[in-house]
Every structure is written in structure tokens, then in C-alpha cells.
Amino acid sequence: MDYDLVVIGCGAGGLAAAVAYADLAGPEARIAVLERATREGRGGATRWTSSWFRITADRQLDPAFIPLMQHLGEGKADMEYCHVYASEVPATFDFLDRHGVPWVYFEQFFANRNTGGGLAMPVPGGVAIVDTLAAAIDALPNASIHYETEAVALQTDAAGTVTGVQVRTPSGPALLTARAVVLACGGFEGAKDLLTEHLGERGTALPVIAPTLVNNLGDGLRLTQPLGGDVAGQFDMFHGEPIDTRSSKPDAVVYAYPYGIVVNAKAQRFFDEGADSFDSTFERLGYEIWAYQDQKAFFIAEKAVLDWPNVAAIILSDMPPIEAPTLEALALQLGLPVDALVSTVREYNAAIQPGETDRRILDGKRTRGLSPEKSNWATPIQQGSFIAYPLTCAITFTFGGIRSDAQARVLRRDGSAIEGLYAAGEVTGLYYKEYPAGTSVLRALTFGRIAARQASAARS
């Protein structure tokens, strides 16, 4: 089984690499895409999540991304990589348009001090990327997606150039020889041993944001370490999101918390819900719930907030809120100490300062005398009925991964490139401290394209 290109992974990065390679090398190119999941579960996290794109109206990466990465990375983030990413984003949207991936742009509905543009997303979400690009591969005469196929090892020649992939298929082991290989197989969200090693014993307490993330077993790390592969990104940090504990729906994130309060199992506030808009704070909230609140929290508000413009749209759970006519009754439904919840809400209401609430801006409508304070959108919780969503933190992707450069080449610990090996997406480490929301899927698509371009150029 001899191929021009073997791609390990069937999410945004892997599919973009395969389709972009066919664009460059011609429709007769021999391409294999390896997917550990079944056809129905293909696509990794991309398939199940909203896959936001953090861009401006003229299809540029949010200009705030570069300075934000400089600040968060503190000298560790690869800024050449980030600059190339930014410069290539318009071409990525040209690629999506050319292959018929539907997407929509809209201005942000809510204030945010850390972004310089709006948001876009594929329609109806990441599944549009997976199904559209997978169909493009299926239409090629010499390309195919190999389901339930696991990459076991990379094959190299005497010079260290990657020449193929040893795989485990439903029919048994096989060797796929290739002129180039692209790693696009995600992080280690499903690897209990690596989660424990890097996040501690509680790392395995994190549910995954989407079901087939259990297939992300750190293959990029396992495959490249025998070749001297280097690593990048913060291994003891991850991108987590606050999800509704009752929902089995993937990506059941509750983003509306800035317009109420969040309490822990003792009915105490522990987080500044109004520090910034939800897309700048939801990761911090998720991490706080996991690291310090024993994976249990509750978003509490007046039911009236669901009628505020766009608020209901940012509650992605398929479950209705828990509702009660009084706070006492709500506490009983949630299993919270009644007196403590009533006291927490009373103290919060009493601490709210004068002023008007405006969810379109950072309105400065805040509390005084609380710990923690609420910095914006502090409106009273006093008119029933009252609602709640029980929250826990789900892992979306890990920050640590293999090191690749701005040309998508996988690097060794001595800084040299492993010839014939490229990488795209969350298999590569980039982020430190915090994740600038809306940049990961777009990064995967962009470096999938770049990997294809480099592999095609090396072939010729």
C-alpha cells in the first residue's frame, strides 16, 4: 500500500491537509486518511463542537491574537508560527469557500476587551467541516478514509526520513508507505496515563466535551518520541469548558453565567462572573470548577435573563433550566444548603452599586464589599421565578503537544526538522496559561493547508 500522503487524524487539520494536498498534487494523488473512530464518530472534537472562528469582517485573524499570545506565552510561544498563522487565515477562508464549507460571520453580541473583531462559524457547526471535506476526499479516485485504524509507529529510512506508517486495522496490522505523513490526531484528552502524568490524579476526573475525544490518546507524542521529537505548549494546562452536568449532548456549554452568579456546592460565590465577556472567561471558570471546586458548581439567575437579547442562544445545553418560585425551593432541588444560598444571594444583591446594566459593553455595574467582587453586569436576583444550571468542567483539548514550526514541519529536540513529517491542529503544542477562544479549529485548518503545501513541494 503505497501512498503519496498519509494523514493521521480525521478532524479539521487532517481533512484540510488531505484535501489541500489533492488540490496541489492533482486529483490522482494517492492519499490515505487514518481515523481511529468509526465513520459515524469521525472528526474528533471538530465534529461535535461549534468551531468558532475569531476573525474580523474582512476575513483576517483577530488582530488582538498576536499581542495576546505574546503576553500569555511570556517568551515561550512560537511567535513566528503565530505570525504565519495570522497571515494565512484569509487563504484558509478561500479554501473553505472553494470546497463549499458553509460558514457565517457576525459581529459579537457582547462586550469583550480582548478581541478586535467578530466571530464566524461553520454552519451548523464543526460537523460541516468534517462532512464537506470528507466528501471531497471520498470523491477522489485514489484517496480514502480508513476507519477504525490506529497508527502504531512511524517508519523511517537510514537517514531518519519518515517513509510510512505501521497501522492496526480491523483486518490486522499493515504498513502504509508514504512520501509524506501529516500528524493531525489531537492531544491526549483520552489518555488516562498522560492526563495523570501531567495534570495529576484528578486529571482523569475530567469528562470529555465530545464522545470521540476518548480516541485522542497522545498518538503524536508516542509516535514522535522515538524519533527524537520535541514538545511545546503547557503540559499541565488544558482548555476546559463549563458544561451542564445533566446533558449527554456534546458541547453542552453554559455561557450565560455573566448575567447571574455562580456558586459552589456550599452555595458560595467563588468567581468574578463579570470580569469580561463569556468568551474571555469561560475557560478560567471551567478550570476553577475542576481545580478548586471539586467539579461542582451552579449558575443561578432570575428566569427573566433568558428573555434578554441573545442570552438564551449562549446556553448550548439541550436540558431546560432547573426552575423554582423561590430561592429556598431552588436550593432544595439543587441539593444546596438553603440558608447559605439565600444568604449568598442577599449579600450579592445588597452589594450591587447604582447604575444601568448594558450587556453590549463592559458597563461597570459592579458590587462593593464582596469577595470576589462582580465587576460588570451586577443585576439583582430577587424576582422569581429562579433558574439554575448545574455545571462541571469538561476537557476540550490539552495545551501540550509535539513541536512544529511555521512550515508545519515536526521538529526534533535539537531543532532540526524530521524530514517527511508534518503536523496540524491540537497535536501540536502552542498555548500557555490561557487559550484565546476561537483560534484552535482555524489553526488546524490553516496548518493543515500549510502541511499539504510543504509536503507537495517536497514531493516535486
Question: How would you summarize this macromolecular structure in one to three sentences?
Answer:
The chain is α+β, with helices and mostly antiparallel strands and about 450 residues long. Helix content is about 30%, strand content about 20%.
Any overview of this molecule?
This protein is α+β, with helices and mostly antiparallel strands. The chain folds into two domains: about 300 residues, FAD/NAD(P)-binding domain; about 160 residues, Flavocytochrome C3, Chain A, domain 1 (Alpha-Beta Complex). The protein has eleven helices and 18 strands. Helix 1 runs parallel beside helix 11, helix 3 runs antiparallel to helix 4 and helix 4 packs across helix 11. The two termini are about 20 Å apart. The relative contact order is 0.20.
List the helices and strands and how they pair.
Blueprint: E1 2-8, H1 12-25, E2 31-35, H2 44-48, E3 53-55, H3 65-73, H4 79-98, E4 103-106, E5 118-122, H5 126-138, E6 143-147, E7 150-156, E8 162-169, E9 172-183, H6 192-199, H7 219-224, E10 231-232, E11 238-244, E12 261-264, H8 278-292, E13 297-302, E14 322-324, H9 327-334, H10 338-351, E15 386-398, E16 401-402, E17 409-411, E18 417-423, H11 440-459
Parallel strand pairs: 1-2, 1-9, 2-6, 9-18
Antiparallel strand pairs: 3-5, 4-5, 7-8, 8-9, 10-16, 11-15, 12-13, 13-15, 14-15, 17-18
- By CATH, the topology of the largest domain is FAD/NAD(P)-binding domain
Gross morphology is: elongated
Number of strands: 18
The computed structural class is alpha+beta
CATH homologous superfamily descriptor of the largest domain: FAD/NAD(P)-binding domain
If helices are DSSP runs of H or I spanning 4 or more residues, what is the number of helices?
Answer: 11
What is the share of helical residues?
25-40%
Residue stretches low in confidence (pLDDT < 50, at least 5 long) are: none
What count of domains describes the coordinates?
2
| N- to C-terminal distance | 21 Å
Q: Report mean pLDDT, rounded to a whole number.
A: 95
The H-and-E topology, N to C, reads as EHEHEHHEEHEEEEHHEEEHEEHHEEEEH
